[in-house]
Amino acid sequence: MCEVVLGEFLKEIKKNPSSVKFAEMANILVIHCQTTDDLIQLTAMCWMREFIQLAGRVMLPYSSGILTAVLPCLAYDDRKKSIKEVANVCNQSLMKLVTPEDDEPDEPKPVLHRQTESHPDDTLAKQEGAGSGGPDGSCDSSFSSGISVFTPASTERAPVTLHLDGIVQVLNCHLSDMAIGMMTRIAVLKWLYHLYIKTPRKMFRHTDSLFPILLQTLSDESDEVVLKDLEVLAEIASSPAGQTDDPGSLDGPDLRVSHSELQVPTPSRAGLPTTPGAKGLECSPSTPTMNSYFYKFMINLLKRFSSERKLLEVRGPFIIRQLCLLLNAENIFHSMADILLQEEDLKFASTMVHALNTILLTSTELFQLRNQLKDLKTLESQNLFCCLYRSWCHNPVTTVSLCFLTQNYQHAYDLIQKFGDLEVTVDFLTEVDKLVQLIECPIFTYLRLQLLDVKNNPYLIKALYGLLMLLPQSSAFQLLSHRLQCVPNPELLQTEASLNAAPKSQKADSPSIDYAELLQHFEKVQNKHLEVRHQRSGRGDPLDRRVVL
Protein backbone atom coordinates (compact mmCIF):
# COMPACT_ATOMS: atom_id res chain seq x y z
CA MET A 1 0.00 0.00 0.00
CA CYS A 2 2.78 2.45 0.95
CA GLU A 3 4.65 1.61 -2.26
CA VAL A 4 1.54 2.46 -4.34
CA VAL A 5 1.01 5.75 -2.54
CA LEU A 6 4.64 6.74 -2.99
CA GLY A 7 4.44 5.84 -6.66
CA GLU A 8 1.38 8.06 -7.18
CA PHE A 9 3.09 10.87 -5.25
CA LEU A 10 6.16 10.65 -7.50
CA LYS A 11 3.94 10.76 -10.62
CA GLU A 12 2.37 13.99 -9.41
CA ILE A 13 5.83 15.47 -8.83
CA LYS A 14 6.85 14.55 -12.38
CA LYS A 15 3.71 16.19 -13.80
CA ASN A 16 4.37 19.56 -12.15
CA PRO A 17 8.07 19.75 -11.09
CA SER A 18 8.24 23.55 -11.18
CA SER A 19 6.18 23.89 -7.99
CA VAL A 20 8.09 21.24 -6.06
CA LYS A 21 10.58 22.19 -3.35
CA PHE A 22 13.08 19.45 -4.14
CA ALA A 23 15.74 20.70 -1.76
CA GLU A 24 13.41 20.48 1.26
CA MET A 25 12.81 16.78 0.57
CA ALA A 26 16.36 15.87 -0.40
CA ASN A 27 17.46 15.31 3.20
CA ILE A 28 14.80 12.65 3.75
CA LEU A 29 15.93 10.76 0.63
CA VAL A 30 19.60 10.85 1.60
CA ILE A 31 18.81 9.29 4.99
CA HIS A 32 16.63 6.54 3.52
CA CYS A 33 19.13 5.81 0.73
CA GLN A 34 21.44 4.53 3.46
CA THR A 35 19.00 2.21 5.21
CA THR A 36 19.70 -1.51 5.48
CA ASP A 37 16.24 -2.43 4.17
CA ASP A 38 16.62 -3.20 0.46
CA LEU A 39 13.12 -2.13 -0.58
CA ILE A 40 13.27 1.19 1.26
CA GLN A 41 16.77 1.85 -0.08
CA LEU A 42 15.73 1.06 -3.68
CA THR A 43 12.63 3.26 -3.40
CA ALA A 44 14.61 6.17 -1.96
CA MET A 45 17.31 5.74 -4.60
CA CYS A 46 14.69 5.80 -7.39
CA TRP A 47 13.27 9.01 -5.94
CA MET A 48 16.77 10.47 -5.76
CA ARG A 49 17.33 9.62 -9.42
CA GLU A 50 14.14 11.41 -10.41
CA PHE A 51 14.92 14.41 -8.23
CA ILE A 52 18.35 14.88 -9.80
CA GLN A 53 16.94 14.61 -13.30
CA LEU A 54 13.96 16.89 -12.60
CA ALA A 55 15.59 19.52 -10.39
CA GLY A 56 18.98 19.63 -12.10
CA ARG A 57 21.42 22.09 -10.59
CA VAL A 58 19.11 22.79 -7.67
CA MET A 59 20.47 19.54 -6.21
CA LEU A 60 24.12 20.58 -6.51
CA PRO A 61 24.37 22.14 -3.01
CA TYR A 62 23.41 18.73 -1.62
CA SER A 63 26.03 16.78 -3.57
CA SER A 64 28.05 15.66 -0.55
CA GLY A 65 25.03 14.03 1.09
CA ILE A 66 23.95 12.41 -2.16
CA LEU A 67 27.44 11.04 -2.75
CA THR A 68 27.57 9.74 0.82
CA ALA A 69 24.45 7.71 0.07
CA VAL A 70 25.18 6.72 -3.53
CA LEU A 71 28.90 5.83 -3.64
CA PRO A 72 28.81 2.75 -1.35
CA CYS A 73 25.97 1.30 -3.44
CA LEU A 74 28.19 1.19 -6.54
CA ALA A 75 30.15 -1.68 -4.95
CA TYR A 76 27.08 -3.88 -4.39
CA ASP A 77 27.11 -7.37 -5.87
CA ASP A 78 24.42 -8.97 -8.06
CA ARG A 79 22.18 -9.60 -5.07
CA LYS A 80 21.48 -5.87 -5.01
CA LYS A 81 21.89 -5.29 -8.73
CA SER A 82 18.80 -3.06 -9.06
CA ILE A 83 19.99 -0.71 -6.29
CA LYS A 84 23.46 -0.59 -7.83
CA GLU A 85 22.09 0.32 -11.28
CA VAL A 86 19.89 3.13 -9.95
CA ALA A 87 22.78 4.44 -7.82
CA ASN A 88 25.01 4.48 -10.90
CA VAL A 89 22.44 6.59 -12.78
CA CYS A 90 22.24 8.99 -9.82
CA ASN A 91 26.02 9.26 -9.73
CA GLN A 92 26.36 9.92 -13.47
CA SER A 93 23.50 12.43 -13.51
CA LEU A 94 24.93 14.36 -10.58
CA MET A 95 28.38 14.44 -12.18
CA LYS A 96 26.97 15.94 -15.37
CA LEU A 97 25.58 18.87 -13.38
CA VAL A 98 29.10 20.12 -12.62
CA THR A 99 30.24 22.47 -15.39
CA PRO A 100 33.21 24.82 -15.98
CA GLU A 101 30.95 27.70 -14.93
CA ASP A 102 31.15 26.36 -11.37
CA ASP A 103 34.85 27.20 -11.21
CA GLU A 104 36.31 30.47 -9.99
CA PRO A 105 37.13 33.18 -12.56
CA ASP A 106 40.72 33.83 -13.62
CA GLU A 107 40.98 36.56 -10.99
CA PRO A 108 38.95 35.28 -8.04
CA LYS A 109 37.28 37.78 -5.77
CA PRO A 110 38.36 37.93 -2.10
CA VAL A 111 36.92 35.05 -0.12
CA LEU A 112 34.37 36.61 2.26
CA HIS A 113 31.87 33.79 2.62
CA ARG A 114 33.37 31.93 5.58
CA GLN A 115 30.90 33.24 8.19
CA THR A 116 27.82 33.30 5.98
CA GLU A 117 28.54 30.00 4.26
CA SER A 118 25.78 27.93 5.84
CA HIS A 119 25.15 26.12 2.58
CA PRO A 120 23.89 22.52 2.81
CA ASP A 121 27.28 20.90 2.28
CA ASP A 122 28.69 22.63 5.37
CA THR A 123 25.95 21.51 7.79
CA LEU A 124 25.29 17.98 6.68
CA ALA A 125 26.78 15.72 9.33
CA LYS A 126 24.44 15.63 12.27
CA GLN A 127 21.87 13.46 10.57
CA GLU A 128 24.48 11.72 8.43
CA GLY A 129 26.39 10.92 11.60
CA ALA A 130 23.47 8.76 12.64
CA GLY A 131 23.33 6.73 9.48
CA SER A 132 25.82 7.82 6.87
CA GLY A 133 28.98 6.64 5.23
CA GLY A 134 27.37 3.67 3.53
CA PRO A 135 25.64 0.57 4.91
CA ASP A 136 28.46 -0.20 7.33
CA GLY A 137 28.79 3.37 8.56
CA SER A 138 32.54 3.18 8.01
CA CYS A 139 32.87 6.87 7.24
CA ASP A 140 30.73 8.20 10.08
CA SER A 141 33.59 9.44 12.24
CA SER A 142 35.25 11.19 9.34
CA PHE A 143 32.10 13.01 8.29
CA SER A 144 30.74 14.01 11.67
CA SER A 145 32.67 17.25 11.95
CA GLY A 146 32.76 18.75 8.49
CA ILE A 147 29.86 17.58 6.34
CA SER A 148 26.35 18.79 6.89
CA VAL A 149 22.69 17.97 7.12
CA PHE A 150 20.31 19.36 4.53
CA THR A 151 18.58 22.58 5.48
CA PRO A 152 15.29 23.72 3.97
CA ALA A 153 15.74 25.49 0.68
CA SER A 154 14.75 29.09 0.20
CA THR A 155 11.63 29.83 -1.81
CA GLU A 156 13.67 32.20 -3.97
CA ARG A 157 15.47 30.76 -7.00
CA ALA A 158 18.96 32.04 -6.22
CA PRO A 159 21.88 31.09 -8.49
CA VAL A 160 23.29 27.72 -7.50
CA THR A 161 26.86 27.82 -6.21
CA LEU A 162 28.97 24.66 -6.07
CA HIS A 163 30.87 24.36 -2.79
CA LEU A 164 33.56 21.68 -2.92
CA ASP A 165 34.55 21.41 0.75
CA GLY A 166 31.90 18.82 1.65
CA ILE A 167 32.21 16.95 -1.66
CA VAL A 168 35.99 16.60 -1.37
CA GLN A 169 35.71 15.44 2.22
CA VAL A 170 33.25 12.72 1.23
CA LEU A 171 35.47 11.60 -1.66
CA ASN A 172 38.57 11.66 0.55
CA CYS A 173 36.83 9.56 3.19
CA HIS A 174 35.71 6.89 0.74
CA LEU A 175 39.13 6.73 -0.93
CA SER A 176 40.84 6.40 2.46
CA ASP A 177 38.62 3.50 3.52
CA MET A 178 40.51 0.39 2.39
CA ALA A 179 37.44 -1.77 3.06
CA ILE A 180 35.40 0.06 0.42
CA GLY A 181 34.66 -1.76 -2.84
CA MET A 182 36.68 -1.39 -6.03
CA MET A 183 33.84 0.15 -8.07
CA THR A 184 33.28 2.77 -5.37
CA ARG A 185 36.99 3.67 -5.39
CA ILE A 186 36.95 3.98 -9.17
CA ALA A 187 33.85 6.20 -8.97
CA VAL A 188 35.57 8.42 -6.39
CA LEU A 189 38.61 8.82 -8.64
CA LYS A 190 36.38 9.60 -11.61
CA TRP A 191 34.75 12.32 -9.54
CA LEU A 192 38.10 13.79 -8.58
CA TYR A 193 39.27 13.74 -12.20
CA HIS A 194 35.98 15.34 -13.33
CA LEU A 195 36.27 18.08 -10.71
CA TYR A 196 39.90 18.84 -11.67
CA ILE A 197 38.81 19.13 -15.31
CA LYS A 198 35.69 21.24 -14.71
CA THR A 199 36.66 23.28 -11.63
CA PRO A 200 40.48 23.21 -11.43
CA ARG A 201 40.94 26.48 -9.51
CA LYS A 202 38.58 25.42 -6.74
CA MET A 203 40.04 21.91 -6.62
CA PHE A 204 43.63 23.06 -6.22
CA ARG A 205 42.67 24.47 -2.83
CA HIS A 206 42.24 20.84 -1.72
CA THR A 207 45.18 19.29 -3.53
CA ASP A 208 47.53 19.27 -0.54
CA SER A 209 45.00 17.28 1.51
CA LEU A 210 44.23 14.88 -1.35
CA PHE A 211 47.82 14.30 -2.43
CA PRO A 212 48.84 11.78 0.30
CA ILE A 213 45.82 9.53 -0.21
CA LEU A 214 46.22 9.64 -3.99
CA LEU A 215 49.83 8.49 -3.60
CA GLN A 216 48.74 5.77 -1.19
CA THR A 217 46.15 4.56 -3.70
CA LEU A 218 48.98 3.61 -6.08
CA SER A 219 49.39 0.52 -3.87
CA ASP A 220 45.80 -0.61 -4.54
CA GLU A 221 45.41 -4.21 -5.67
CA SER A 222 43.28 -3.26 -8.68
CA ASP A 223 44.99 -2.15 -11.90
CA GLU A 224 41.86 -0.18 -12.83
CA VAL A 225 42.02 1.81 -9.60
CA VAL A 226 45.75 2.50 -10.05
CA LEU A 227 45.23 3.59 -13.67
CA LYS A 228 42.43 5.99 -12.74
CA ASP A 229 44.52 7.25 -9.82
CA LEU A 230 47.40 8.00 -12.20
CA GLU A 231 45.03 9.96 -14.43
CA VAL A 232 44.08 12.17 -11.47
CA LEU A 233 47.72 12.66 -10.43
CA ALA A 234 48.73 13.43 -14.02
CA GLU A 235 45.99 16.04 -14.28
CA ILE A 236 47.18 17.63 -11.04
CA ALA A 237 50.78 17.68 -12.32
CA SER A 238 49.94 19.21 -15.70
CA SER A 239 46.98 21.53 -15.07
CA PRO A 240 47.75 25.24 -15.63
CA ALA A 241 45.67 25.99 -12.52
CA GLY A 242 48.33 24.26 -10.43
CA GLN A 243 51.07 26.72 -11.34
CA THR A 244 52.23 28.80 -8.38
CA ASP A 245 54.59 31.74 -8.19
CA ASP A 246 56.57 30.07 -5.41
CA PRO A 247 57.18 26.38 -6.16
CA GLY A 248 59.10 26.01 -2.93
CA SER A 249 55.92 26.54 -0.94
CA LEU A 250 54.69 23.16 -2.16
CA ASP A 251 57.50 21.24 -0.51
CA GLY A 252 56.72 20.14 2.99
CA PRO A 253 59.17 18.76 5.51
CA ASP A 254 58.47 15.25 4.21
CA LEU A 255 60.21 15.95 0.91
CA ARG A 256 63.84 14.92 0.70
CA VAL A 257 64.89 17.26 -2.08
CA SER A 258 63.95 20.89 -2.47
CA HIS A 259 63.59 22.59 -5.84
CA SER A 260 66.86 24.41 -5.40
CA GLU A 261 68.66 21.10 -4.84
CA LEU A 262 67.23 19.54 -7.97
CA GLN A 263 69.51 21.48 -10.28
CA VAL A 264 72.00 19.08 -11.87
CA PRO A 265 75.52 20.23 -11.04
CA THR A 266 77.08 21.28 -14.34
CA PRO A 267 80.29 23.19 -13.63
CA SER A 268 82.19 21.52 -16.47
CA ARG A 269 79.34 20.76 -18.81
CA ALA A 270 80.62 22.87 -21.63
CA GLY A 271 78.19 24.15 -24.19
CA LEU A 272 75.04 22.70 -22.62
CA PRO A 273 72.18 25.09 -21.80
CA THR A 274 71.31 25.48 -18.14
CA THR A 275 68.45 27.39 -16.61
CA PRO A 276 69.22 28.73 -13.13
CA GLY A 277 66.68 28.80 -10.37
CA ALA A 278 63.57 26.78 -9.68
CA LYS A 279 61.85 27.95 -12.83
CA GLY A 280 64.08 25.84 -15.01
CA LEU A 281 63.50 22.80 -12.86
CA GLU A 282 59.79 22.60 -13.44
CA CYS A 283 60.17 21.07 -16.88
CA SER A 284 62.50 20.14 -19.66
CA PRO A 285 63.51 23.02 -21.94
CA SER A 286 61.82 21.44 -24.94
CA THR A 287 58.45 20.71 -23.32
CA PRO A 288 57.39 23.39 -20.80
CA THR A 289 54.05 21.78 -19.93
CA MET A 290 54.27 20.82 -16.27
CA ASN A 291 53.15 22.93 -13.32
CA SER A 292 54.56 23.46 -9.83
CA TYR A 293 53.07 20.22 -8.52
CA PHE A 294 54.96 18.11 -11.05
CA TYR A 295 58.21 17.91 -9.08
CA LYS A 296 56.34 17.37 -5.85
CA PHE A 297 54.67 14.38 -7.48
CA MET A 298 57.95 12.97 -8.81
CA ILE A 299 59.74 13.38 -5.47
CA ASN A 300 56.93 11.73 -3.51
CA LEU A 301 56.58 8.93 -6.06
CA LEU A 302 60.27 8.06 -5.74
CA LYS A 303 60.00 8.33 -1.98
CA ARG A 304 57.14 5.84 -2.06
CA PHE A 305 59.15 3.48 -4.27
CA SER A 306 62.01 3.74 -1.78
CA SER A 307 59.84 2.89 1.23
CA GLU A 308 57.82 0.20 -0.58
CA ARG A 309 60.23 -1.87 -2.65
CA LYS A 310 57.47 -4.34 -3.46
CA LEU A 311 55.51 -1.53 -5.10
CA LEU A 312 58.54 -0.74 -7.25
CA GLU A 313 59.03 -4.38 -8.22
CA VAL A 314 55.38 -5.22 -8.92
CA ARG A 315 53.88 -1.94 -10.09
CA GLY A 316 56.85 0.35 -10.78
CA PRO A 317 57.20 -0.30 -14.54
CA PHE A 318 53.41 -0.13 -15.03
CA ILE A 319 53.16 3.19 -13.14
CA ILE A 320 56.07 4.82 -14.96
CA ARG A 321 54.92 3.65 -18.41
CA GLN A 322 51.43 4.99 -17.83
CA LEU A 323 52.80 8.31 -16.59
CA CYS A 324 54.89 8.56 -19.77
CA LEU A 325 51.65 8.25 -21.75
CA LEU A 326 49.67 10.65 -19.57
CA LEU A 327 52.43 13.25 -19.19
CA ASN A 328 55.65 13.80 -21.13
CA ALA A 329 58.19 10.97 -21.12
CA GLU A 330 61.15 13.35 -21.36
CA ASN A 331 59.96 15.31 -18.33
CA ILE A 332 59.39 12.12 -16.35
CA PHE A 333 62.90 10.80 -16.95
CA HIS A 334 64.59 14.19 -16.68
CA SER A 335 62.99 14.93 -13.31
CA MET A 336 63.58 11.47 -11.86
CA ALA A 337 67.22 11.59 -12.93
CA ASP A 338 67.59 15.00 -11.24
CA ILE A 339 66.09 13.66 -8.01
CA LEU A 340 68.09 10.41 -8.00
CA LEU A 341 71.27 12.42 -8.38
CA GLN A 342 70.66 13.68 -4.82
CA GLU A 343 69.51 10.31 -3.46
CA GLU A 344 71.33 9.34 -0.25
CA ASP A 345 70.28 5.69 -0.35
CA LEU A 346 72.73 4.56 -3.03
CA LYS A 347 71.39 1.01 -3.20
CA PHE A 348 67.90 2.31 -3.94
CA ALA A 349 69.33 4.75 -6.48
CA SER A 350 71.04 1.87 -8.29
CA THR A 351 67.87 -0.25 -8.23
CA MET A 352 65.72 2.66 -9.46
CA VAL A 353 68.15 3.53 -12.24
CA HIS A 354 68.14 -0.09 -13.39
CA ALA A 355 64.31 -0.07 -13.46
CA LEU A 356 64.18 3.22 -15.39
CA ASN A 357 66.79 2.00 -17.86
CA THR A 358 64.87 -1.22 -18.54
CA ILE A 359 61.72 0.81 -19.18
CA LEU A 360 63.62 3.20 -21.44
CA LEU A 361 65.07 0.39 -23.54
CA THR A 362 62.08 -1.93 -23.79
CA SER A 363 58.80 0.03 -23.54
CA THR A 364 56.87 0.91 -26.68
CA GLU A 365 55.60 4.04 -24.89
CA LEU A 366 59.17 5.44 -25.00
CA PHE A 367 59.86 4.95 -28.70
CA GLN A 368 60.07 8.69 -29.39
CA LEU A 369 62.34 9.32 -26.41
CA ARG A 370 64.70 6.59 -27.59
CA ASN A 371 64.82 8.15 -31.04
CA GLN A 372 65.54 11.53 -29.49
CA LEU A 373 68.47 10.08 -27.55
CA LYS A 374 69.77 7.95 -30.40
CA ASP A 375 71.38 10.77 -32.38
CA LEU A 376 71.85 13.63 -29.87
CA LYS A 377 71.42 16.17 -32.66
CA THR A 378 69.80 18.89 -30.55
CA LEU A 379 70.95 20.72 -27.45
CA GLU A 380 67.86 19.46 -25.65
CA SER A 381 68.71 15.82 -26.38
CA GLN A 382 72.33 16.38 -25.32
CA ASN A 383 71.11 18.01 -22.11
CA LEU A 384 68.81 15.04 -21.46
CA PHE A 385 71.64 12.56 -22.12
CA CYS A 386 73.97 14.30 -19.66
CA CYS A 387 71.21 14.48 -17.06
CA LEU A 388 70.41 10.77 -17.41
CA TYR A 389 74.09 9.82 -17.52
CA ARG A 390 74.88 11.47 -14.19
CA SER A 391 72.17 9.45 -12.43
CA TRP A 392 72.75 6.30 -14.47
CA CYS A 393 76.29 6.27 -13.02
CA HIS A 394 74.72 4.69 -9.91
CA ASN A 395 74.63 1.49 -11.98
CA PRO A 396 77.70 0.77 -14.18
CA VAL A 397 76.01 -1.61 -16.63
CA THR A 398 73.04 0.70 -17.25
CA THR A 399 75.51 3.51 -17.97
CA VAL A 400 77.09 1.40 -20.71
CA SER A 401 73.66 0.55 -22.14
CA LEU A 402 72.81 4.27 -22.23
CA CYS A 403 76.02 4.87 -24.21
CA PHE A 404 75.03 2.06 -26.61
CA LEU A 405 71.59 3.62 -27.03
CA THR A 406 73.09 7.05 -27.79
CA GLN A 407 75.83 5.53 -30.01
CA ASN A 408 78.62 6.81 -27.77
CA TYR A 409 80.70 3.72 -28.43
CA GLN A 410 84.10 5.15 -27.57
CA HIS A 411 82.81 6.35 -24.21
CA ALA A 412 81.18 2.94 -23.64
CA TYR A 413 84.59 1.33 -24.25
CA ASP A 414 86.21 3.78 -21.81
CA LEU A 415 83.63 2.87 -19.17
CA ILE A 416 84.16 -0.85 -19.64
CA GLN A 417 87.89 -0.31 -19.12
CA LYS A 418 86.99 1.19 -15.72
CA PHE A 419 85.06 -1.97 -14.80
CA GLY A 420 88.39 -3.59 -13.97
CA ASP A 421 88.62 -1.30 -10.93
CA LEU A 422 85.10 -2.13 -9.70
CA GLU A 423 84.08 -4.88 -7.31
CA VAL A 424 82.64 -7.65 -9.49
CA THR A 425 79.62 -9.33 -7.87
CA VAL A 426 77.11 -11.90 -9.03
CA ASP A 427 74.52 -9.15 -9.38
CA PHE A 428 76.94 -7.16 -11.55
CA LEU A 429 77.53 -10.14 -13.85
CA THR A 430 73.80 -10.81 -13.99
CA GLU A 431 73.23 -7.28 -15.29
CA VAL A 432 75.97 -7.76 -17.91
CA ASP A 433 74.19 -10.96 -18.93
CA LYS A 434 70.89 -9.06 -19.30
CA LEU A 435 72.63 -6.36 -21.36
CA VAL A 436 73.91 -9.01 -23.77
CA GLN A 437 70.35 -10.34 -24.09
CA LEU A 438 69.13 -6.79 -24.82
CA ILE A 439 71.74 -6.34 -27.55
CA GLU A 440 70.06 -9.24 -29.35
CA CYS A 441 66.64 -7.57 -29.12
CA PRO A 442 65.02 -5.41 -31.85
CA ILE A 443 65.79 -2.23 -29.93
CA PHE A 444 69.49 -2.58 -30.81
CA THR A 445 69.04 -3.62 -34.44
CA TYR A 446 70.85 -0.49 -35.57
CA LEU A 447 73.80 -1.35 -33.31
CA ARG A 448 74.14 -4.84 -34.80
CA LEU A 449 73.97 -3.44 -38.32
CA GLN A 450 76.77 -1.01 -37.47
CA LEU A 451 79.01 -4.03 -36.89
CA LEU A 452 79.16 -4.30 -40.69
CA ASP A 453 80.95 -0.94 -40.81
CA VAL A 454 84.05 -2.12 -38.98
CA LYS A 455 86.22 0.78 -40.12
CA ASN A 456 83.95 3.49 -38.69
CA ASN A 457 82.88 1.63 -35.54
CA PRO A 458 86.05 0.15 -34.02
CA TYR A 459 85.08 1.20 -30.47
CA LEU A 460 81.74 -0.57 -30.75
CA ILE A 461 83.53 -3.83 -31.50
CA LYS A 462 86.08 -3.21 -28.74
CA ALA A 463 83.28 -2.43 -26.26
CA LEU A 464 81.46 -5.67 -27.12
CA TYR A 465 84.68 -7.63 -26.76
CA GLY A 466 85.14 -5.92 -23.41
CA LEU A 467 81.75 -7.22 -22.26
CA LEU A 468 82.75 -10.65 -23.54
CA MET A 469 85.90 -10.62 -21.45
CA LEU A 470 83.88 -9.68 -18.33
CA LEU A 471 81.52 -12.63 -18.65
CA PRO A 472 82.23 -16.13 -17.44
CA GLN A 473 81.71 -18.76 -20.13
CA SER A 474 77.95 -18.90 -19.80
CA SER A 475 75.10 -18.85 -22.30
CA ALA A 476 75.43 -15.06 -22.56
CA PHE A 477 79.13 -15.48 -23.32
CA GLN A 478 78.32 -17.94 -26.11
CA LEU A 479 75.63 -15.63 -27.50
CA LEU A 480 77.88 -12.58 -27.69
CA SER A 481 80.81 -14.65 -28.94
CA HIS A 482 78.73 -15.97 -31.83
CA ARG A 483 77.60 -12.44 -32.66
CA LEU A 484 81.17 -11.14 -32.78
CA GLN A 485 82.20 -14.05 -34.97
CA CYS A 486 79.76 -12.66 -37.54
CA VAL A 487 81.66 -9.37 -37.76
CA PRO A 488 83.13 -9.36 -41.27
CA ASN A 489 86.75 -8.86 -42.21
CA PRO A 490 87.04 -5.13 -43.03
CA GLU A 491 89.37 -5.81 -45.93
CA LEU A 492 86.69 -7.88 -47.67
CA LEU A 493 84.19 -5.01 -47.43
CA GLN A 494 86.41 -2.21 -48.70
CA THR A 495 85.28 -0.31 -51.77
CA GLU A 496 86.89 2.57 -53.62
CA ALA A 497 84.59 5.02 -51.85
CA SER A 498 85.36 3.60 -48.42
CA LEU A 499 89.11 3.77 -49.07
CA ASN A 500 88.87 7.51 -49.76
CA ALA A 501 86.52 8.24 -46.86
CA ALA A 502 87.92 9.50 -43.59
CA PRO A 503 86.97 7.55 -40.47
CA LYS A 504 84.25 9.09 -38.29
CA SER A 505 85.05 10.39 -34.86
CA GLN A 506 82.78 9.75 -31.89
CA LYS A 507 79.72 11.95 -32.04
CA ALA A 508 81.20 14.59 -34.29
CA ASP A 509 77.83 16.31 -34.27
CA SER A 510 77.79 16.75 -30.47
CA PRO A 511 81.07 18.45 -29.55
CA SER A 512 79.45 20.23 -26.60
CA ILE A 513 79.43 17.10 -24.40
CA ASP A 514 82.46 16.84 -22.15
CA TYR A 515 83.00 13.08 -22.04
CA ALA A 516 86.12 13.34 -19.88
CA GLU A 517 84.12 15.14 -17.19
CA LEU A 518 81.35 12.54 -17.44
CA LEU A 519 83.91 9.77 -16.96
CA GLN A 520 85.23 11.52 -13.85
CA HIS A 521 81.68 11.77 -12.52
CA PHE A 522 81.22 8.02 -13.10
CA GLU A 523 84.35 7.25 -11.08
CA LYS A 524 83.24 9.58 -8.29
CA VAL A 525 79.81 7.97 -7.99
CA GLN A 526 81.24 4.45 -8.05
CA ASN A 527 83.72 5.38 -5.32
CA LYS A 528 80.78 6.48 -3.17
CA HIS A 529 79.11 3.12 -3.75
CA LEU A 530 82.32 1.34 -2.76
CA GLU A 531 82.56 3.34 0.48
CA VAL A 532 78.95 2.54 1.36
CA ARG A 533 79.51 -1.18 0.72
CA HIS A 534 82.55 -1.15 3.00
CA GLN A 535 80.56 0.64 5.71
CA ARG A 536 77.79 -1.95 5.45
CA SER A 537 80.39 -4.69 5.62
CA GLY A 538 81.80 -3.16 8.83
CA ARG A 539 78.31 -3.11 10.37
CA GLY A 540 77.69 -6.71 9.35
CA ASP A 541 74.85 -5.77 6.93
CA PRO A 542 74.15 -8.18 4.05
CA LEU A 543 76.22 -7.36 0.97
CA ASP A 544 75.73 -8.06 -2.68
CA ARG A 545 76.66 -11.59 -3.62
CA ARG A 546 80.37 -11.73 -4.33
CA VAL A 547 82.04 -13.73 -7.02
CA VAL A 548 84.55 -16.22 -5.67
CA LEU A 549 87.43 -16.48 -8.14
TrEMBL record:
Annotated compartments: Endomembrane system
Annotated Vacuolar protein 14 C-terminal Fig4-binding domain residues: 309-487
One Pfam family from the record: Vac14_Fig4_bd
Composition bias, Basic and acidic residues: 107-125
Ranges where the record places region Disordered: 97-139, 238-257, 262-283, 530-549
InterPro entries with a match to the protein in the record: ARM-like, ARM-type_fold, Vac14, VAC14_Fig4p-bd
Keywords, sorted A to Z: Membrane, Repeat
Cellular component, GO annotation: endomembrane system
Family in the record: Belongs to the VAC14 family.
PANTHER family xref list: PROTEIN VAC14 HOMOLOG (PTHR16023:SF0), TAX1 BINDING PROTEIN-RELATED (PTHR16023)
Function: Scaffold protein component of the PI(3,5)P2 regulatory complex which regulates both the synthesis and turnover of phosphatidylinositol 3,5-bisphosphate (PtdIns(3,5)P2). Pentamerizes into a star-shaped structure and nucleates the assembly of the complex. The pentamer binds a single copy each of PIKFYVE and FIG4 and coordinates both PIKfyve kinase activity and FIG4 phosphatase activity, being required to maintain normal levels of phosphatidylinositol 3-phosphate (PtdIns(3)P) and phosphatidylinositol 5-phosphate (PtdIns(5)P).
Assembly and oligomerization: Forms pentamers. Component of the PI(3,5)P2 regulatory complex/PAS complex, at least composed of PIKFYVE, FIG4 and VAC14. VAC14 nucleates the assembly of the complex and serves as a scaffold by pentamerizing into a star-shaped structure, which can bind a single copy each of PIKFYVE and FIG4 and coordinates their activities. Interacts with NOS1.
Protein's name in the database: Protein VAC14 homolog
Organism: Daubentonia madagascariensis (Aye-aye)
